[in-house]
Amino acid sequence: MPKTIVIFFGPPGSGKGTQAEMLAKLTGWKKISTGDLFRAEIAAKTKLGILADRYIKQGKLVPGKVTASLVEKSLKQKASGFIFDGFPRNRGQLKELLMIFAKIFKKKDQIYALEVAVSDREVKRRLGQRRLCACGKVYHLAYNPPINNGLCDICGGQLFTRNDDKPKVIAHRLKVYHHDGEPLLDYFKKQGKLIKINGEQAIAKIHKDIMEELSGLKLV
Ligand code: AMP
Questions:
Q1: Cβ(31) to ligand 1 under 6 A?
Q2: For ligand 1, is residue 84 a contact (CB within 6 Å)?
Q3: Is 49 part of any domain?
């Protein structure tokens, strides 16, 4: 069976992390979120985590080689498919991914880009209400609230606001997304490998749209 890689694209706050998680649960594909990998390194206070934290706090990208080596390690896991959330984010990282792909995947394996499209205005409205748990679960106070105020449904942990969800940092992240991320969407569009989904809908409807598109392409 050929393997599939689905790369989620979308501005910060587009809900792509939630959708990637739902898709991973349904398909059994491994989800690779570079943001989560970095947060785990930060929580474990590793050398890499301490370095990454400095960049993440300012809304900047963590340097390329560090990220690529984490990704390559993750792609060597056994799985029928992989879901990317947060990688690649610029041309350099796309190049790295294509090189890793050529090295460890077969010709029939496929890479698709899946864009969860959300306007800048909606992003700014949403992010102020995002809450995270250290276990990786993401909540939104209006759209996807926890059952108990301030506590994680899964592990009971205290929820927190990410440093990079502050307004100034959000504006910078949006600028970076448009400048660096959009050329990647053009690349996949030209390859006929871009799936575009309206991200300004209910979580369940976005998931349904994603499944319909993937099933139409016979990937699920
Ligand atoms: P995310 O959870 O995907 O929004 O990522 C949070 C932060 O982690 C980003 O703002 C970056 O600082 C860092 N990060 C995540 N993915 C990457 C990546 N592919 N390359 C460099 N830095 C990244």
A1: no
A2: no
A3: no
19 located within any domain: yes
User: How far apart (Å, rounded) are the C-alpha atoms in residues 1 and 13?
Assistant: 34
Q: Let me know if residue 36 belongs to a domain.
A: no
Scored b (16 or more CB within 10 A) or e, 158-177 reads ebeebebbeeebbeebbebb
pLDDT digits (tens, 9 = 90+) for 70-79: 899 899 999 9
Q: Is 39 a catalytic residue?
A: no
Report the pLDDT averaged over residues 85-108: 94
CATH number, domain of 191, equals: 3.40.50.300
Q: Would you call 16 a catalytic residue per the annotation?
A: yes
Looking at the domain assignment, is residue 160 inside a domain? no
Q: Is the CB of 56 within 6 Å of ligand 1?
A: yes
What's the pTM? Answer: 0.84
Q: Which residues contact 141 (CB under 8 A, 6 or more apart)?
A: 129, 130, 131
* Domain extent for 106: 4-29+79-118+177-216
Ligand 1: centre distance to CA 153 (Å): 25
